[in-house]
Amino acid sequence: MQDFAGAFTLAFSLLASFDADLYEIVGLSLQVTLSAVLIAALIGLPVGALIATTRFPGRGLVIVVLNTLMGLPPVVIGLLVYMALSNAGPLGVLRLLYTPGAMIIAQALLVTPIVAALSRQVIEDRHGECAELFRSMVVSWGRAIATLLWDARAALLTVALAGFGRAIAEVGAVIIVGGNINHVTRVMTTAIALETSKGDLALALALGIVLLIVAIAVNGAVSALRAGTVPASHV
Amino acid sequence: MPLVVEGLRYAIAGRPLLGPVDLRLDHGGITAVMGPNGAGKSVLLRLLHGLVRASSGRISWAGRALDDGIRRRQAMVFQKPVLLRRSVAANIDFALKLRAVPDIAGRRDELMRLARLDHVAQRPARVLSGGEQQRLAIVRALALEPDVLFLDEPTASLDPAATLAIEDLAKTVRDRGVKIILITHDAGQARRLADDIVFLHGGRVTEHTPATRFFERPASAEAAAFLAGKIVL
Amino acid sequence: MYGLRSLGFVAVAALALASLAIGSARAGDFIIIQSTTSTQNSGLLEAILPEFTEKTGIEVRVVAVGTGQAIKNAKNGDGDVLLVHARAAEVKFVAEGWGVKRHDVMYNDFVVVGPAADPAGISGMSDAVAALKKIAAAEAPFASRGDDSGTHTKERALWDETGIDVAAASGGWYRETGSGMGATLNAGVGMGAYVLTDRATWIAFSNKGDFRVLVEGDDRLFNPYGVILVNRQKHKRVKADEGQRFIDWLTGADGQRAIAGFRLEGQQLFFPNAGGATN
Prior knowledge:
The structure holds 3 protein chains of 3 kinds. By secondary structure, chain A is mostly helical. Chain A has helices at residues 2-16, 20-53, 59-69, 74-85, 100-137, 141-151, 153-169, 172-178, 188-197, 201-229. Chain A has 10 helices and no strands. In chain A, α3 runs antiparallel to α5, α5 (100-137) packs antiparallel against α7 (153-169) and α7 packs antiparallel against α10 (201-229). By secondary structure, chain B is an alpha/beta fold. In chain B, 36% of the residues lie in helices and 26% in strands. In chain B, α3 crosses α4 (104-114). Chain C is of the alpha/beta class. In chain C, 45% of the residues lie in helices and 24% in strands. In chain C, α6 packs across α7. At the A-C interface, α2, α5, α6 and α9 of A face α1, α2, β2 and α9 of C.
């Protein structure tokens, strides 16, 4: 398999050549996935915190459903979003199909259950340690949640990274709702799928390596950010 | 103050853990709650602080039933201190902001000096030693400006030097007019600190007497056995 | 307090999302073509579309899927123009009112590719049906798209002529990938299975291994492409004017010249044949 060595060489020469198309694709991948993770965090964290800190009938069932949704196949989400955003669908009027907005929606749907389910666990554990303290200090529910979220920030960043990893790597949803349109909705994974279908396995693999490098860069940046706000000994 | 407890009972799933307890505690000084494990000391403290709800009976502070208004005038330090995952200073700030204390920076510095933690102000609270963590928990409780401070075995797992530091801190707090209600297993500590002793056994108060009298002539057989170093069941 | 703040965050995010989406949807004039992978994988559209965009200012966004999927998407109104290669399905699409009119655009042909070892011994044959019969008789592996695409439609028609029930052999020597042309070629090369493919995709395909064209030249392997404007009567958001301009260009002198001029490895992949229209 001379493809392997060739793919590595190609990956680095692609990056080094500052190929405009490649950087556009990488940029769109990051824009779509980071937006999706941000939205997923804004929805998933409060939902996770809410479930973690309250008791209500059917709570166990909600948690089981949430945990199950973490395994939702991207292609199913892609289909659901397609059916909703299609001109024949209820949200067709938004004209979002085959735009980055549609891809963000699909990935946000993919990641939100992950953020909600994992943060629920993280916050619930922390809440177990702090609940009596909060009650003793007469801390309001809202402030208690804000405190728990801040205290669990290191673990929650890891949760966000898990979501990022799932979203940046998925192809099934974005190829359906984005359409893999050149210069419009083509991202790393759909470009890899396209090159594979053209039989250009070396280029596909090279793009895969570029995707990994991008993911490493994002993880590294978050790691540095965490080191800045949370001393290692404090985690 | 005063605290009046009448016919207080606490049971879980029909199994009685405490009571009936009748008790009256007056303003100021340090009250030590003693007794063997399972006597109901921690449950009593949590009931008095409103962390758990009594099955029956009445608790009144200065004639008022226990509500959030009263509870805001109280603070509690747990046996294993629960610290927020932030710096020493930020832990104190959290409590100061909670009670909207004016001059947060000045008050925080004063409290850190009181706990002799000013040199570690910006360290994460969780890297402190056990004694330092407990001192931080105590001054953070003080930041709430309570009238009553509950201490649940604050020195249970500390060495003598750390224990002494906590006891000194407790005395300072007492001297500022804060009523302290302290659970301890350590008869020596009770002797050093307490003004009066509440002795619990089997969920009931077997005696409540001034400390000097308690250590000289305990009224109940259980307390006498406990002080004599016998194992009380 | 926290609830209000998080509500605010969500609102801001929703707005950001909406503005981003609107921004990308309203950026200039564009039309969406629902097309097949062969026109994209071969590089044809990428090569000829810039000329149209330069002339008209209309950007063309291509969604390349199988013909069956492309027709379904067009029925949902998710495209302005349909450019595919399954004539019967196209005629039906227009007859049912989904499309305005079908125009001939270009053609090429299908070929059967297979391993150099050629276990069924079909190399050099020009009778596609006879070749398929030999493959079936040898029970040599055959990889089918199995995805209701234009190529798959053609393949089923050829099998029908052989009278062989391939469904019975499915999972045995007859293997349905349920994927696009490229993925099916990758699978075919991987397992040494014969594949029916359009010539354009084959020439542009890089992972040929020792595969080569074994059967070609049968009239039944004719592969015509049609272009259809999606009917505005069915979906009022169809950009009929821009779509029609594209069809006029593609079937006009400039578009036809561009198609004829597109070459890969020295070979012409598509042959223009506009002029015919089917209502």
